[in-house]
Design a protein that fits this description.
Layout (H helix, E strand, L loop, with lengths): L2 H8 L3 H9 L6 E2 L6 E2 L2 H15 L4 H9 L4 H32 L15 H14 L8 H37 L1 H7 L4 H4 L12 H14 L4 H30 L9 H24 L7 H23 L2 H24 L6 H12 L20
Helix pairs in contact: 7-11, 7-12, 7-15, 10-11, 11-15, 12-14, 13-14
Length: about 375
């Protein structure tokens, strides 16, 4: 059953259905062929239950605890009745003040905090509730989502290009000095020789992977946009040593007969070409609105760009294999991740675009689902 069928059957919008899925209240399966969601009868029944409880004012957190068996319905109703009693008291206070203002015939200019009753805690709660509602609820269209993601990724790969140009040669010489696979092959039983931690440069080979994991943990457990953007910059800078060490590993182990070295300039050009590919994907999505509708369109674009860039890069540098493998992996990686993010982007806000950009910049992060901890309510502009 498609999301449109569920929308018509249950009587709630696609945005609500996806929100409840993001909150872990329903878990529709994915079609293996097109990766679209397929909703079952159990999902329909669960949404019906959610709808009834939300009409009664039961919070999402309590519904989640009900689903997980942490609370029973009796306890949830008891909590709701307590909240209703508090709300009734607050409404009674509001009613008294409103009646007082009406009877005194005060002009608008005379309205101030002094007319409120002395219970500051009660009015403080009411103010917090109102201010939470009085924010701009910004929903991105598919085109706006593509634009936000393209800006983030192209900016991130441009950072990689600058770092590669300035520090690439030093990073490559550092990673080349470890030569882990050759040590493993030369003395497979001697771990001291394979992992020369006594030399501080030895940790360089493992540091980028460790930093990827740390960044992923950080972006999973924070909702602060400023912190997320700091992590984004760290991911962009960290991608350079990650690529350097990956190339060293491939040259030493996968292609041991190839004695071709790369420079910071090579990697800088690769990052700029990758940023250009992001822009091309965005332009394709603008001119052809169905571009991200099918995975095969994205795959075709990746193969075409790989062929062109391999021809250019191989002719200029003679590194045909390195350019082909690098561009093939990156174009497929970016395109397919963008494809899946696009299909989840309907009725989402800019925060979703930020987290998806973070996931793509963190190569290890794309293997995991960031939803749950990083879903805010609305983003204030």
């Amino acid at each position: 059953m498609t999301i449109k069928d569920v929308e018509n059957k249950v009587g709630i919008t696609k945005a609500n259905i996806r929100y409840y899925e993001n909150e872990g209240l329903i878990s529709p399966k994915r079609n293996d062929t097109n990766n679209y969601r397929e909703y079952s009868q159990q999902d329909i029944e669960q949404l019906e239950r959610i709808k009834v409880l939300r009409v009664l004012g039961v919070p999402i957190s309590d519904i989640r605890d009900l689903k997980d068996g942490k609370l029973n319905l009796e306890a949830v109703m008891e909590n709701r009745l307590k909240l209703l009693h508090e709300e009734e008291q607050n409404l009674e206070a509001v009613r008294r003040v409103c009646e007082n203002l009406r009877q005194r015939h005060l002009p608008f200019d005379s309205v101030s905090e002094s007319i409120l009753e002395e219970d500051e805690a009660s009015w403080g709660e009411q103010l917090a509730k109102v201010l939470k509602e009085d924010i701009t609820k910004e929903i991105l269209t598919s085109k706006q989502f593509n634009k936000s993601l393209a800006l983030m990724l192209s900016y991130g790969y441009c950072i990689c290009a600058v770092v590669s140009f300035l520090l690439g040669d030093w990073m490559y010489s550092s990673s080349d000095g470890i030569c882990l696979p050759r040590k493993l092959m030369g003395s497979p039983g001697t771990m001291e020789n394979a992992f020369p931690f006594a030399d501080t440069i030895g940790t360089f080979f493992f540091f980028p992977v460790i930093l990827c994991i740390i960044c992923y943990i950080g972006m999973y457990f924070t909702k602060n946009t400023t912190i997320l953007m700091v992590i984004f910059h760290i991911n962009a800078i960290n991608l350079v040593p990650l690529l350097m060490t990956a190339y060293t590993f491939a040259r030493s182990f996968i292609f041991p007969w190839k004695d071709v070295s790369i420079s910071g300039m090579h990697l800088s050009l690769f990052c700029l070409m990758t940023a250009a590919y992001v822009v091309i994907l965005f332009l394709l999505s603008r001119t052809w609105k169905h571009f991200f509708a099918k995975a095969r369109y994205v795959i075709a674009a990746a193969l075409g760009y790989t062929a062109i860039m391999t021809l250019i890069g191989g002719t200029l540098s003679g590194m045909w294999t390195a350019f082909f493998i690098g561009f093939f992996l990156f174009t497929m990686y970016i395109g397919l991740n963008w494809f899946h993010a696009y299909h989840d982007a309907n009725n989402n806000n800019r925060y979703f675009a930020v987290t998806e950009g973070l996931r793509i910049m963190n190569i290890l992060g794309t293997a995991f689902d960031m939803r749950g901890k990083t879903i805010p309510t609305w983003v204030q502009r």
